[in-house]
Amino acid sequence: MQRFLAEQELWSQLQSITKTRKCPIKVAVPYLGKDARKLLHLRRGDAVIVELTLGNSRNGSVCPEEIARLRKKGVDVYVSRDLHAKVLLCGRRAVIGSANLSNNSLKHLDEAALLTTEKPVIRKVRSWFDDRMCEEVTPAWLEKCRKAYRPPKNHSEGNGNRMPLSNSVWFSGMVTYTVGFC
């Protein structure tokens, strides 16, 4: 099964998957904002991979305090310094798309993802996570990033209103497609 998710349907699915699951969750997102723990139902035994760098701490893309809160809940947090992927794995389901764990992503950005239960894809996603869960966030690194952290200046919370979007999404050649994010 494959299903395209966008905007509020994407966030509803992410929250539903993380709330009703019976297995650990693995999440990879480069950016993790303040109050990210409130966006998904993460708990002890779950794993998060994030691009926790001094630069991302300085520009507010990653909130070290939020990572500290997740670790306190028993969530394992790993560092990937060149991560750009946004992936969630829960048992036999994976969501692969554009959303980071941030209020900006939830309230302001036009996000989309593909939900899949295709067994070969799930195996590859699981292996992909295993290859990246090598460097756990240490207390010393977290403290260094906490000292460097500055709240983001370019993403205001605003009123949550989005620009109207076209009702049509066109895909060409559904066998394989690549979406570039920069």
SSE-based structural type: alpha/beta
**Which CATH top level class fits?**
Alpha Beta
Architecture in CATH? 2-Layer Sandwich
Please provide the ordered H/E string of secondary-structure elements. EHEEHHEEEHEHH
Low-confidence stretches: 156-182
- Write out the CATH superfamily name: Endonuclease Chain A
Mean pLDDT: 88
User: What's the N-to-C terminus distance?
Assistant: 28 Å
Radius of gyration: 16 Å
CATH fold group = Endonuclease, Chain A
Percentage of residues in helical conformation? 25-40%
Strand order of the largest sheet: 1-7-6-5-2-3-4
Describe the protein's topology.
Layout: E1 2-6, H1 7-20, E2 25-28, E3 47-50, H2 54-58, H3 64-72, E4 76-79, E5 86-90, E6 93-97, H4 103-107, E7 112-116, H5 119-132, H6 139-148
Parallel strand pairs: 2-3, 3-4
Antiparallel strand pairs: 1-7, 2-5, 5-6, 6-7
Task: Give a structural overview.
It is a single chain. The chain has a seven-stranded mixed β-sheet, with helices on both faces. It starts with a strand and ends in a 34-residue tail after the last helix. The protein is globular and about 45 Å long. Residues 156-182 have low confidence and may be disordered. It has six helices and seven strands; from the N terminus they run βαββααβββαβαα. The chain has 182 residues and is of the alpha/beta class. It has a single domain, classed as Endonuclease Chain A (Endonuclease, Chain A), CATH 3.30.870. The chain has helices at 7-20, 54-58, 64-72, 103-107, 119-132, 139-148; strands at residues 2-6, 25-28, 47-50, 76-79, 86-90, 93-97, 112-116. β5 (86-90) and β6 (93-97) form a beta hairpin.
